Amino acid sequence: MAPRRGGFGGGGGGFSGGSACPSSAFSSDYSRIILAFTALWLIVDLVLACTVASRKKRILNAGHAKESLQWAMIHMSINFMLLCNILFLVSLVLNECGISYYAVTGVNISAIWLDGLAILILYGLILVPVCRQLHQVAGYIMARVVTVAHFTLMLFLSSILISYLSVTTAVLDGIGSRYRTTFALSDARRGLIITFDVFAVIGMLMAVFSIATAMTRSKQLRSGNMAIWTSLLIVASLGLATARLGDNTYSFFPSRFTSDPRGRLLAGTFVTDFFYAMTFLCVLFVASNPALTTSDQNTASAPVEPVAPQTDAVPIPVAVPAPNGETKDYYTPLPVDHSATPPPHQQQTQMYQQPQQQQQQQYQAVPPPRPYYS
């Protein structure tokens, strides 16, 4: 997340307004390695984007249910990282060719925002949809508890990241202005990114515990390809958060005893990009696994159990006219036993006899009340 891949001039001279690159462009080993790394991960991101489209099409053709929000987050994460690598590549070329400093700074700021959002969305995919679906396979009660806890942590991580990106934009856009203001913002920037990475490690530890718990409770998650991809997801997600914490710590707090700081930065860049690609691939194959998609489909189309018929008699009031012109309610209970069903011809006979019986009951004389003797 630190702006180290773009904006480092290895052999280019000062910034100018010329359109042609000087002969000294990409003359240093550092600039060439950075260019090769950026191009490599750009190709990897393109392959991952194509894999996302292929897996999604396979799920739709198989007729499995899919979550639109989850797949939207998957597309956003890989597309943001793809655009980030493209902008870093453009920034590196502009820097080596000595193009205007303000153009390079604007490209760097956009790339840093895309990189941070891609990582945040990937963390959100692991913490909320993936963990919830795994617990839906293992048990529905834990799924709600895990979702609420992980979603709360994601809100906290989002607020810290947005603050960090805003401060980073102010620092990069304000270089050359007041020194004290820029120095104070740089201190705040270091604190924000380290806080974000520390809580990201805590979040991935929570996700690892949640995934491991779901695997122990469900035999379906411990068999076949699902067990392989969930195990790889545990290792990759924890490795991603830990690698970014160590890389950003060294980037903002470099050690004086390191003999090759640029080589250390290159190694950190490669490791963090590798763990991102590995984590994203594991999330993709876990989310598109038939075990989870079938679980979602069964949950959405679960049949509702019919209500058992009531066998108790329910009294129904029947209005009967009295001799004085008033009506009195007499309660006629329904038959209690519904198990024996009469034959069809008896049902038709009862159907024709019911109106006559009701008419006779309606006009039947009501006996006078008995006298009360005190």
UniProtKB/TrEMBL annotation:
Keywords, in A-Z order: Membrane, Transmembrane, Transmembrane helix
Protein's UniProt keywords contain Magnesium: no
Signal peptide: none
Phylogenetic placement of the source organism: Eukaryota, Fungi, Dikarya, Ascomycota, Pezizomycotina
Spans annotated as Disordered: 315-374
Transmembrane regions: 33-53, 74-94, 100-128, 148-172, 192-214, 226-245, 265-287
Amino acid composition bias (Low complexity), ranges on this chain: 346-365
Name of the featured protein: Integral membrane protein
Native species: Coccidioides posadasii (strain C735)
Top-level taxon of the source organism: Eukaryota
